[in-house]
Design goal:
Elements (H helix, E strand, L loop, with lengths): L16 E2 L1 E3 L2 E3 L6 E5 L6 E6 L3 H20 L1 H18 L1 H12 L3 H22 L5 E4 L5 E9 L3 E4 L7 H12 L4 E4 L5 H14 L6 E3 L4 H10 L5 E5 L2 H13 L3 E5 L4 E5 L5 H13 L9 E7 H17 L18 H16 L3 E4 L14 E4 L16 E7 L2 H8 L7 E5 L5 H7 L4 E4 L18 E2 L12 E9 L5
Parallel strand pairs: 1-5, 8-9, 8-11, 9-10, 11-12, 13-14, 13-18, 14-17, 16-17, 18-19
Antiparallel strand pairs: 2-3, 4-5, 6-7, 7-21, 12-20, 15-16
Helix pairs in contact: 1-7, 2-4, 2-6, 3-4, 3-6, 4-5, 9-10
């Protein structure tokens, strides 16, 4: 099952001509149409990807339906070995994968290598969980009665992944699906098709049954609509914006299809007067500007008690000023570009609105360089709830600092928005219990950075979605409990 090491992660696509993968075959779309892939650091065209038409989308869904018995026939151990082999393939091709990821998405090589490692970690975690998809036995009330709870695969899955973590988000969706014997039709972001093709190639090399993993690109609205409505698809997994997620969830719900929704966030970062401010600056600064702030769990609203506000502001400005912004393919770069010009324009608009509302631009706030979609790390001093950036997910390198008079005032502001994905707190030990009890968030990390490990749940509450894409909880959405009650002693 273990594939041989390869020099390139996906030699079939090394010329940046990315095709669809349907029913075990790389192929063009039905119409032959293609679209360009752009490097966000240089604005150069890297290559092209095939566009799926309706016939291709339907073929992928039908291939997944046909593959279900073959994937199940591998057994728990076989699927475990499949996932483990794919993860090992990624480790073997780590540097080449990281280079492709950086070229397409823009993040630094250092961050890209971490993402490759974390993706392999995720697949290896789900390889172990594949062997633990246990049912249970319930004692019968009468002799000769056996009561069993079986956990069967829900069926083929349509998985929609974003561009900000184009490898690890695929692993979070495909890992638990394959562990539970659910074939997948994967629709990754069109900004990062080569990364998705390499991810698929890892499973091809590992020996995945034809049709158990399919890959399509094209018009997101068309693909999502046709996949969600296709009768072969029984489960939806989506990571993306709240408005799109709500539409997909409603559509899936109308057809009684399961859904896991990992939607937007607007993470509060509470810093109290009892906090270790130096530690808060180091941790939150790193978390804020990772991937140029294009992280769903990125700390965004810094809610800081008066006593330490100036110290935290000074520290974050110093941290932002130390970052070297540039092409992520250069080893010395600390922060790469935004993924596309749409994001850069959105960030500019949010910064202008904040200043118009009376905030002070403490650092940054402008484009960088003549080429590429670069935007400087930005610190906003004196943020107010009326600002757009305090209500809309910025998804960029903006830290919004707001003074609060007390911990309770910080919690009130943190809970004000309908988002509830992630939250951060730096505080005294005696304040932690209150924060744990009062803060409304699907994930919370206190006095350190502790989110997104393979063994821990990953998901939100309120408008940030439902379901988990991490930990043992991730498999629940892919398994259907089925009850069997049998009289094993038949009497006449």
């Amino acid at each position: 099952m273990t594939p041989a090491a390869r020099t390139l992660p996906c030699p079939e696509h090394s010329a940046w001509k990315i095709d669809l993968y349907i029913a075990g075959q790389w192929r063009e779309g039905s119409s032959g149409r293609r679209a360009p892939v752009t490097n966000p650091a240089t604005e150069d065209q890297l290559g092209t990807y095939a566009i799926a038409e309706s016939a291709d989308i339907s073929a992928a869904a039908e291939a997944a339906r046909s593959a279900l018995p073959h994937l199940a026939a591998l057994g728990a151990l076989g699927r475990s070995q499949l996932l483990r082999s794919a993860g090992q393939w990624m480790r073997t091709n780590r540097q080449r994968l990281a280079s492709i990821l950086t070229a397409e998405q823009g993040k630094t090589l250092r961050e890209a290598r971490i993402e490759v490692d974390s993706s392999a970690d995720l697949l290896e975690w789900f390889a172990e969980e594949a062997r633990r998809t246990y049912g249970r036995v319930i004692p019968g009330r009468q002799p000769g009665i056996r009561q069993l709870v079986l956990r069967d695969p829900v069926g083929p899955v349509a998985a929609f992944a974003p561009w900000n973590f184009p490898l690890s988000q695929l692993a979070r969706k495909v890992g638990p699906a394959l562990a539970a014997a659910c074939p997948v039709v994967l629709k990754p972001a069109e900004e990062t098709p080569h990364t998705a093709a390499c991810f698929t190639e890892a499973f091809v090399a590992a020996g995945i049954p034809a049709g158990a993993l399919n890959l399509v690109f094209g018009d997101p609205a068309q693909i999502s609509s046709e996949l969600v409505e296709h009768p072969a698809i029984r489960k939806i997994s989506f990571t993306g914006s709240v408005p799109v997620g709500k539409k997909l969830a409603a559509r899936a719900g109308s057809m009684m299809k399961r859904a896991t929704m990992e939607l937007g966030g607007h993470a509060p970062a509470i810093v109290t007067a009892k906090a270790n401010v130096e530690r808060a600056v180091a941790d939150l600064g790193r978390a804020k500007f990772r991937n140029a702030g294009q992280v769903c769990v990125s700390p965004t609203r810094f809610l800081v008690e008066d006593a330490v506000y100036d110290q935290l502001l000074e520290g974050l400005v110093e941290f932002a000023a130390s970052l070297r912004v540039g092409d992520g393919s250069h080893e010395h770069t600390d922060m790469g570009p935004l993924a596309n010009d749409r994001r850069r324009q959105a960030i500019e608009s949010l910064v202008a609105d904040a200043v118009a509302c009376g905030a002070r631009l403490a650092y940054g706030g402008q484009r960088c360089g003549d080429r590429g979609y670069f935007f400087s790390p930005t610190i906003i001093d004196g943020a107010k709830p009326i600002m757009r950036a305090m209500n809309e997910e910025p998804f960029g390198p903006i830290a919004l600092l707001m003074r609060v008079s007390s911990l309770d005032a910080a919690i009130e502001e943190a809970n004000r928005l309908p988002y509830g994905l992630a939250a951060y707190a730096y505080c005294g030990a005696d304040e932690a219990d209150h924060i744990i009890s009062a803060l409304e968030s699907g994930m919370l990390t206190i006095n350190h950075l502790g989110l997104a490990l393979p063994e821990t749940p990953f998901g939100g509450i309120k408008d940030s979605g439902y379901g988990s894409e991490g930990g043992s909880e991730a498999l629940d959405a892919y398994l259907v409990p089925r009850f069997v009650s049998a009289a094993t002693k038949v009497t006449s």
